[in-house]
Design a protein that fits this description.
The protein has helices spanning about 35-45, 135-140; strands at about 10-15, 20-25, 30-35, 45-50, 50-60, 65, 70-75, 85-90, 95, 110-115, 130. The chain has about 150 residues and is mainly β.
Length: about 150
């Protein structure tokens, strides 16, 4: 696995009402895209997220979380409802909603996952690796994660 480039400056973002703010340090210079049916219900279409080496959250008292499965947590502002992050519970790894941040131009898409659940009414112009839900689950199980 190759080393991912980092965005040199911290990224600052917030929810619609401004009660929750997030600062990312060492944000990865790529965007993760998920087309699963849960992400579609959560954000209205695909979920685009940014990973980071570290983060700081202000306004924790306004954050609500929802365990959307045994292995996933989704966070949102309890006041305005803005989506904030997705957390893979077995590792604690998070991706933060890309739309919260002013991102540099030219970021590549790392991959598109659950491509088999993507509706036919949209397509992303940028070419990127694509994996089905079955492929993602198989990879996670091979890494020792259980989804039962």
């Amino acid at each position: 696995m190759s080393e991912v480039e980092r965005i040199s400056e911290p990224l600052h973002g917030n929810c619609l009402c401004g009660k929750v703010s997030v600062t990312l340090t060492g944000a990865h210079r790529e965007v993760d895209v998920c087309h699963c049916s849960m992400c579609q219900q959560w954000v209205g279409a695909m979920y685009a997220g940014i990973e980071s080496d570290s983060f700081a959250i202000e306004g924790d008292e306004h954050v609500s979380t929802y365990d959307s499965s045994d292995w996933a947590e989704r966070a949102f502002c309890g006041t305005c409802g803005s989506s904030l992050w997705y957390k893979f519970k077995p590792t604690g790894g998070r991706t933060f909603l890309a739309g919260m941040f002013k991102l540099p131009e030219g970021l590549p898409i790392k991959h598109q996952i659950f491509i088999d659940e993507k509706p036919d009414w949209y397509d992303l112009a940028q070419e990127s690796p694509k994996r089905t839900g079955a492929q993602i689950i198989a990879e996670a199980k091979a890494a020792g994660f259980s989804f039962d």
